[in-house]
Protein backbone atom coordinates (compact mmCIF):
# COMPACT_ATOMS: atom_id res chain seq x y z
CA UNK A 1 0.00 0.00 0.00
CA UNK A 2 1.32 3.40 -0.92
CA UNK A 3 2.18 5.87 1.84
CA UNK A 4 -0.21 8.30 0.20
CA UNK A 5 -3.25 6.02 0.58
CA UNK A 6 -3.84 6.57 4.35
CA UNK A 7 -3.52 10.32 3.87
CA UNK A 8 -6.11 10.31 1.05
CA UNK A 9 -8.46 8.25 3.24
CA UNK A 10 -8.00 10.86 5.96
CA UNK A 11 -9.00 13.67 3.59
CA UNK A 12 -12.09 11.73 2.42
CA UNK A 13 -13.08 11.08 6.04
CA UNK A 14 -12.89 14.77 6.93
CA UNK A 15 -14.99 15.77 3.90
CA UNK A 16 -17.64 13.13 4.61
CA UNK A 17 -18.07 14.25 8.23
CA UNK A 18 -18.29 17.97 7.50
CA UNK A 19 -21.80 19.32 8.31
CA UNK A 20 -23.78 20.50 5.35
CA UNK A 21 -24.43 24.29 5.28
CA UNK A 22 -27.88 25.09 6.63
CA UNK A 23 -29.87 28.27 6.21
CA UNK A 24 -31.53 29.77 9.24
CA UNK A 25 -35.24 30.37 8.75
CA UNK A 26 -38.29 32.16 10.09
CA UNK A 27 -41.94 31.11 10.11
CA UNK A 28 -44.94 33.39 10.69
CA UNK A 29 -48.54 32.19 10.67
CA UNK A 30 -51.31 32.43 9.73
CA UNK A 31 -50.48 33.77 6.23
CA UNK A 32 -53.39 36.27 6.31
CA UNK A 33 -55.95 37.81 8.65
CA UNK A 34 -58.96 40.15 8.71
CA UNK A 35 -59.57 42.73 11.44
CA UNK A 36 -62.36 45.18 12.32
CA UNK A 37 -61.01 48.55 13.48
CA UNK A 38 -62.74 51.72 14.68
CA UNK A 39 -61.56 55.01 13.19
CA UNK A 40 -60.91 56.34 16.71
CA UNK A 41 -59.99 53.06 18.39
CA UNK A 42 -57.69 50.05 18.29
CA UNK A 43 -57.90 46.31 17.83
CA UNK A 44 -55.47 43.40 17.95
CA UNK A 45 -54.75 40.11 16.28
CA UNK A 46 -52.32 37.32 17.12
CA UNK A 47 -49.71 35.71 14.87
CA UNK A 48 -47.40 32.84 15.75
CA UNK A 49 -43.63 32.89 15.46
CA UNK A 50 -41.29 30.00 14.70
CA UNK A 51 -37.61 30.94 14.84
CA UNK A 52 -35.54 28.14 13.35
CA UNK A 53 -31.99 28.99 14.38
CA UNK A 54 -32.46 32.79 14.33
CA UNK A 55 -31.65 35.13 17.20
CA UNK A 56 -31.89 38.92 17.11
CA UNK A 57 -34.60 41.51 16.38
CA UNK A 58 -37.79 41.09 14.39
CA UNK A 59 -38.95 44.37 12.81
CA UNK A 60 -42.69 44.65 12.12
CA UNK A 61 -43.89 47.05 9.42
CA UNK A 62 -46.83 47.81 7.12
CA UNK A 63 -47.22 48.21 3.37
CA UNK A 64 -50.25 49.95 1.82
CA UNK A 65 -51.91 50.19 5.25
CA UNK A 66 -52.25 53.77 6.60
CA UNK A 67 -52.32 52.80 10.27
CA UNK A 68 -50.00 52.67 13.25
CA UNK A 69 -49.02 49.26 14.57
CA UNK A 70 -47.45 48.09 17.82
CA UNK A 71 -45.05 46.59 18.58
CA UNK A 72 -42.72 47.79 15.85
CA UNK A 73 -40.04 45.28 16.89
CA UNK A 74 -39.61 42.31 19.20
CA UNK A 75 -36.64 40.32 20.42
CA UNK A 76 -36.31 36.92 18.81
CA UNK A 77 -34.54 33.83 20.17
CA UNK A 78 -33.60 30.42 18.81
CA UNK A 79 -36.04 28.84 21.28
CA UNK A 80 -39.12 30.63 19.88
CA UNK A 81 -41.45 27.78 19.03
CA UNK A 82 -45.12 28.59 18.43
CA UNK A 83 -44.62 31.90 20.22
CA UNK A 84 -47.76 34.08 20.09
CA UNK A 85 -47.19 37.73 19.12
CA UNK A 86 -50.08 40.17 19.58
CA UNK A 87 -50.14 42.96 17.00
CA UNK A 88 -52.28 46.03 17.75
CA UNK A 89 -53.59 48.35 15.03
CA UNK A 90 -54.67 51.92 15.76
CA UNK A 91 -57.37 53.75 13.81
CA UNK A 92 -56.74 56.82 11.69
CA UNK A 93 -59.32 59.61 12.01
CA UNK A 94 -58.12 61.23 8.78
CA UNK A 95 -59.41 58.25 6.76
CA UNK A 96 -62.84 57.35 5.51
CA UNK A 97 -64.48 54.16 6.69
CA UNK A 98 -64.07 51.22 4.34
CA UNK A 99 -61.88 48.23 3.56
CA UNK A 100 -58.09 48.61 3.48
CA UNK A 101 -55.91 45.77 2.23
CA UNK A 102 -52.15 45.53 2.47
CA UNK A 103 -49.21 43.62 3.88
CA UNK A 104 -47.63 43.20 7.30
CA UNK A 105 -43.87 42.60 6.99
CA UNK A 106 -41.60 40.79 9.43
CA UNK A 107 -37.87 41.35 8.86
CA UNK A 108 -35.38 39.46 11.03
CA UNK A 109 -32.05 41.13 11.87
CA UNK A 110 -29.20 39.06 13.28
CA UNK A 111 -25.84 40.60 14.03
CA UNK A 112 -26.96 43.88 12.47
CA UNK A 113 -27.76 42.29 9.10
CA UNK A 114 -31.03 41.27 7.44
CA UNK A 115 -31.38 37.50 7.77
CA UNK A 116 -34.81 36.80 6.31
CA UNK A 117 -38.17 38.47 5.68
CA UNK A 118 -41.77 37.23 5.73
CA UNK A 119 -44.98 39.00 4.77
CA UNK A 120 -48.60 38.21 5.52
CA UNK A 121 -51.75 39.71 4.01
CA UNK A 122 -54.01 41.93 6.09
CA UNK A 123 -57.57 43.14 5.47
CA UNK A 124 -58.66 45.96 7.77
CA UNK A 125 -62.35 46.88 7.95
CA UNK A 126 -62.25 50.52 9.12
CA UNK A 127 -65.54 51.34 10.85
CA UNK A 128 -67.25 54.44 12.16
CA UNK A 129 -67.19 54.96 15.93
CA UNK A 130 -69.19 52.18 17.55
CA UNK A 131 -69.26 51.14 21.23
CA UNK A 132 -70.32 47.61 20.18
CA UNK A 133 -67.02 46.66 18.56
CA UNK A 134 -65.15 44.03 20.57
CA UNK A 135 -61.60 42.76 20.62
CA UNK A 136 -61.02 40.22 17.87
CA UNK A 137 -61.03 36.61 18.98
CA UNK A 138 -57.66 34.88 18.92
CA UNK A 139 -57.28 32.90 15.68
CA UNK A 140 -56.95 29.13 15.65
CA UNK A 141 -53.44 27.92 16.34
CA UNK A 142 -51.77 27.13 13.01
CA UNK A 143 -50.49 23.63 12.40
CA UNK A 144 -46.83 23.23 13.39
CA UNK A 145 -46.05 21.64 10.02
CA UNK A 146 -47.38 24.76 8.27
CA UNK A 147 -45.11 26.98 10.36
CA UNK A 148 -42.15 24.73 9.55
CA UNK A 149 -42.99 24.96 5.85
CA UNK A 150 -43.12 28.77 6.12
CA UNK A 151 -39.78 28.73 7.94
CA UNK A 152 -38.22 26.60 5.19
CA UNK A 153 -39.58 28.86 2.46
CA UNK A 154 -42.10 26.32 1.16
CA UNK A 155 -45.10 28.62 1.61
CA UNK A 156 -46.78 30.08 -1.44
CA UNK A 157 -45.45 33.51 -2.33
CA UNK A 158 -47.32 36.43 -3.82
CA UNK A 159 -46.36 38.70 -6.69
CA UNK A 160 -46.83 41.57 -4.26
CA UNK A 161 -44.06 40.29 -1.97
CA UNK A 162 -41.53 43.08 -1.43
CA UNK A 163 -38.49 42.50 -3.62
CA UNK A 164 -36.12 43.63 -0.89
CA UNK A 165 -37.34 40.92 1.49
CA UNK A 166 -37.05 38.19 -1.13
CA UNK A 167 -33.54 39.31 -2.05
CA UNK A 168 -32.55 39.42 1.61
CA UNK A 169 -33.67 35.82 2.12
CA UNK A 170 -31.83 34.61 -0.99
CA UNK A 171 -28.72 36.54 0.03
CA UNK A 172 -28.72 35.05 3.52
CA UNK A 173 -29.26 31.49 2.29
CA UNK A 174 -26.52 31.90 -0.34
CA UNK A 175 -24.07 33.23 2.23
CA UNK A 176 -24.50 30.10 4.36
CA UNK A 177 -24.04 27.77 1.38
CA UNK A 178 -21.01 29.52 -0.08
CA UNK A 179 -19.51 30.04 3.37
CA UNK A 180 -19.66 26.29 4.08
CA UNK A 181 -18.24 25.42 0.67
CA UNK A 182 -15.39 27.93 1.10
CA UNK A 183 -14.40 26.37 4.44
CA UNK A 184 -14.48 22.88 2.93
CA UNK A 185 -12.34 23.91 -0.04
CA UNK A 186 -9.83 25.67 2.24
CA UNK A 187 -9.47 22.55 4.42
CA UNK A 188 -8.94 20.29 1.40
CA UNK A 189 -6.35 22.61 -0.16
CA UNK A 190 -4.48 22.85 3.12
CA UNK A 191 -4.35 19.08 3.55
CA UNK A 192 -3.22 18.57 -0.05
CA UNK A 193 -0.48 21.15 0.49
CA UNK A 194 0.77 19.31 3.59
CA UNK A 195 0.70 15.97 1.74
CA UNK A 196 2.59 17.43 -1.22
CA UNK A 197 5.43 18.68 1.01
CA UNK A 198 5.78 15.34 2.83
CA UNK A 199 5.71 13.00 -0.20
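Sequence proposed for the structure above (199 residues):
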Amino acid sequence: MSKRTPFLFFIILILSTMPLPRAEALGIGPPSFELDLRIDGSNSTTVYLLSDGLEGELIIGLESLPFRVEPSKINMSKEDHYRPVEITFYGNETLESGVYEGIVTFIAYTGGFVAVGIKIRAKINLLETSPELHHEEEPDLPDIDDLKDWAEGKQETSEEEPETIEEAQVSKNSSFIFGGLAIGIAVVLGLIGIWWKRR
